[in-house]
What does this fold into?
Amino acid sequence: MTDEILWAIGAPDGRSPDLVDTYKTPNLLGDVVWTVPPAGQTAPPRRWPLFHPSEADPDAGYRPHPYTVVFPLDHEPAGAYLLRLDYLAIAPRLAYLELQVNGVSGLAYLRPAPSRSGEIRLQAGLHTTIYAEGVAEVVVPAALLRRGENRLVLTARDGGSVLAVENPAAIERLDRMADAAGFVYQWLTFARLAKPPRSVLAATEVAPSVVYVTGADGALVERCSLYLELARGIGPSVLALEIDDTGRRERTAFAVPAAAFGHLRLPFDLPDGPSPAVAYTLAGTLGGEAARREGTLTRRRKWTVYVAPHA
It folds into this structure.
C-alpha cells in the first residue's frame, strides 16, 4: 500500500505554473485562498506565491500573511494524514510555520540543509549566499478533519525581535537579498497515510547550533534544540534528555506543553567539551505513552568572528 496524495501545489522540482515568483514583490498575490475542486472536477487556473514572508519582512509590510487551502474529503476521516512541504531557504531570516486545520493550531519548524544538487532553481537564488533546502512533514490526525469541506491555513512566523523601517522610500532602498524573511515553496502535498504512525512520536531530532555563549558560571555552552514531531495530540508531559560526554553526564528535564498536532521545539544548552560527538538518551512519558530515543549528536564547529566598523 502507498500513501494517497489528495491534493498538491507546485512540483517536486519547484517548476510549476502554480507558483508565481513573489520574492521581490511579496504582496503581489495578496493572502491567497487556494480551492481544491471535488474529485472529477477540473480546477480553474490558480496561482500560489512562491515566497511566503513572515512578519519580519519589510517589503511584505511587517505583518503575517495567512495562505489558505480549502479542500474537500469525500470520505469519513480515519487514521492519519500527512502534510509535506518541500522548500528552499534563501532569505537571511528563516520562518517557521503556524498551521491551522479547521481552526485547530499547530506548528512546523523548518530545518534546511545546504543544497546537494548545486542547481539554482529560481532567479533570486542567483544573488544570495544562502541556498538551502529541506522537507517538513506534519502528521494531521483524522480527528481534526471532517467529511466535506476542510480549511488549512499556513502562516509564516518569525518569532524574533524586528526593527521596523517605517519609511516606504527607505524600504525601497533596502537590499532585498539582505532583508527578506520567510521561505520558498517548491511542493506542498496533503496525503492519506497508508500506515498511520504507531508511536506518538513520528520523529525526533537533537540539533546543535553554531551559537556558543558563556554561561552564568563562566563555562562555554552550545545552544541546541530538541525537536519533537507528533503523530497525534498530547497533553502536558515531561521528558528528560541525558547527555553522556566521555563519562560526564548532563541531564536536562523538559516540561513539554500540550499540543494538538505538529512540531515542538525545546531549547537547551550543551556544555562544551573535547569530544566532537556525544551520546544522548531521551526518555519519559508523552501523551500517556512511554517514549525513549537514543542517538548521537555532533558539536558544531566553533568560529572566531572579527567585526570592524567601516563606511
Notes: Residues 168-173 form the longest helix (6 residues).
